[in-house]
Amino acid sequence: MATQNYDMINIDQNDETFDLFYDAEKAGFLEYNKNKEGVLEITHTEVAEEFGRKGLGMELVKVAVEDAKKNNLKIHSLCPYAKKMIEKTPEFKDLLV
C-alpha cells in the first residue's frame, strides 16, 4: 500500500481502491482490479460533488497510471471518465489495451 501526498491531497492505495482525501476529508476513490494477464482494470472513479471541479478525478487517474507503469501493467478502463482522461493525455495513451 502506498500513499501519494500533495499539498491538500492524500491518496491511499488499498487492495482494490485508491482513496483520495482532500484536506483530511475523504473526497473520492478509484476502484480497480489487477488481473493475471498484466492488466490493471479501472472499474469506477468517483469524486464527491462538494469536491468537484478541483481536478481530483484526474489526480486519481494519474495515480492509477503511475501504479500501472511502476508494475509494468497495461490499463483497461471500464470507467468512461478514466478512459477519456487517459486517451486525451499523450503520455498515458500507450498504456491502454
UniProtKB/TrEMBL annotation:
Which domain of life does the protein's organism represent?
Bacteria
**Name this polypeptide is given:** N-acetyltransferase domain-containing protein
* Residue stretches making up the N-acetyltransferase domain: 10-97
